[in-house]
Write a structure and sequence with these properties.
With 376 residues, the protein is an alpha/beta fold. It has helices at residues 9-30, 37-50, 61-71, 89-96, 115-121, 141-151, 208-217, 239-248, 252-269, 301-310, 340-348, 360-375; strands spanning 54-58, 79-83, 100-104, 126-130, 154-158, 166-168, 174-176, 183-187, 201-205, 222-224, 227-228, 276-277, 292-296, 349-352. It has two domains: 9-104 and 111-250, Aspartate Aminotransferase, domain 2, CATH 3.40.640; 252-375, Aspartate Aminotransferase, domain 1 (Alpha-Beta Complex). It has a seven-stranded mixed β-sheet with strand order 1-9-8-5-4-2-3, sandwiched between helices. The chain has a three-stranded antiparallel β-sheet with strand order 12-13-14.
Length: 376
Amino acid sequence: MWPIAMVDLKSQYQKIKPEVDQAIQEVIDSTQFIKGDKVKEFQDKLSNYLGCKHTIACANGTDALQIAMMALGLKPGDEVITTNFTFIATVEVIALLGLKPVLVDVHPNTFNIDIKAIKEAITPNTKAIVPVHLFGQCANMEAVMEIANEYGLFVIEDNAQAIGGDYIFEDGKTQKAGTIGHVGCTSFFPSKNLGCFGDGGALFTNDDALAVKISCIVNHGMEKRYYHDRIGVNSRLDTIQAAILNIKLPLLDNYINSRQLVAQFYNKAFSELDEVATPVTASFTNHVFHQYTLKIKNGKRDALKKWLDEKSVPAMIYYPIPLHLQKAFEDYKEDLKIYPITEQLCEEVISLPMHTELDEEQLNYIAESVISFFKQ
């Protein structure tokens, strides 16, 4: 059996190696390393795929979040509501801009932001909500947008983990994750469902004026070269990365389907284990399974992790420490509340290998390794 990887980028690359190598060579031959034609090509293709008017590429997903907040004109002291159960980048940029992060708890089954908690956290200083589409499924965007419209708030979708996912409205209409709020942000980090071979990111919006601001900010605040209309940053997607993403974007739906088949296998394999809770998909979204995350009951998560390590089955804990307990956010402790669901999840969750190259032998070994822990 081929060694099991948490994410097998090497095998994925081998399947598209000729196309990727050619695309990279074309960029090298053109010497258009920054703002080359392949970048615009990718932006146009991604906009068409997502069904949104504007895609603006940038250097990484963290920059995308920061640029979104800058483009929306958020000012120091403005409050931004977001989830406590996410990667630190979501909250990091809020603090970096001098804004005030307001953390709220999550739903125990989907791990996404709790709608009731959002409403309870709103104050006169609240200016934006950042829902995170965690592990591959959408937060309840219809409810988020209703709150935002009621209180006059901006919505920035953190879509780093759910690119290609679908949100299903109550009337049956579907819309791609990241295109529902005022602006959406994503990451093309190599392990993402749509990943490049380095860092990369993008912002999405249907607002023409906002798209102009974002395009200006990503390039040192310039609309016209050497004429700086606003304070910006240096955050551009390299042309080589755009060329690679142009090859991988047409494969994204196939990648998603492969991940969903793996999740179906895992769900069936673990269905009889009383101490294991498999992922729950909300009725208003599909799941593209950036991660396949179990909840392990009765305090057995860490022992399972050790067991899997001994059997050479990689597993990860996303996330072991809630944001409100991170040392980086000590200055905000007086404003923080109680987060029982987030703290419980940090003690229970474990993610299994999830990628497009898992074969039947590997899947059976992973499942048998998990099951044997609970049958011993």
